[in-house]
Amino acid sequence: MMSEKFLVLFVLASLVGHALVIALTTRIDWAVSPPSERAQEVIAVELKAPPDEVARRPHRPSKERQPAASSGALREGTAALQGDTSPYRDYLLQVRRKIEQRWNYPPQAIAAQEEGNAVIRFTIDANGSLSGYDVMTTSGSEILDQGALAVVKAAAPYAPLPAEFNLSRLHITATFSYRMGE
Predict the structure, then answer these.
(1) Are residues 16 and 101 in the same domain?
(2) I need a surface site. Which of 52, 97, 161, 172 has the fewest CB within 10 A?
(3) Are residues 105 and 25 part of one domain?
């Protein structure tokens, strides 16, 4: 009888804990705007794999790039943020989640009804620091491009690169797709 009560209390505590975690990690838009406004604001913000031709383009160095401190030759890798077949898949999933937690549609772009796809390339050093980022393909909107760059910067630092990657840097390409609802 005592073990059943303990089990029930444990399950209840677990449910409350999970609900709290979900509540803290979910952005609550309805607390900011009335329900009537929410129904009219259907906005899709989506990360997707970059087009093949963009992924193959050589990287333009960023002004914010810093050389990695390393003893020996630099080993670098390149991946698309959504590269499901990539050997970096699990790490990229962590990076994507961290970015998505901070990503939103820039309010100025909503007001101007701007849409587009910004292709961003950013570099994570072995220690997880962001060492460079730039726009590879513009969305056609400076506001959307800067919003995508800002979220990549805001999500830093990232987790250190796993030792089994044997990399000094990982260059990641991501497409930030901004779409307004109809």
Answers:
(1) no
(2) 52
(3) no
Report the distance separating Cα 128 and Cα 69, nearest Å: 13
Q: How far is CA 127 from the centre of its chain?
A: 18
pLDDT tens by residue, 62-113: 433 334 444 556 799 999 987 666 789 999 999 999 999 999 999 999 999 9
Residues 114 and 126 in one domain: yes
108-115: list long-range contacts, CB under 8 Å, 24+ apart: 108/143, 109/141, 109/143, 109/144, 109/147, 109/178, 110/41, 110/43, 110/180, 112/141, 112/143, 113/180, 114/139, 114/140, 114/141, 114/143, 114/144, 114/178, 115/139, 115/141, 115/144, 115/178, 115/179, 115/180
Whether 75 contacts 161, CB under 8 Å? no
Q: Are residues 95 and 140 in the same domain?
A: yes
Domain range for residue 163?
42-65+74-180
Task: Give the C-alpha separation, 77 to 167, whole Å.
Answer: 7
Same domain, 132 and 153: yes
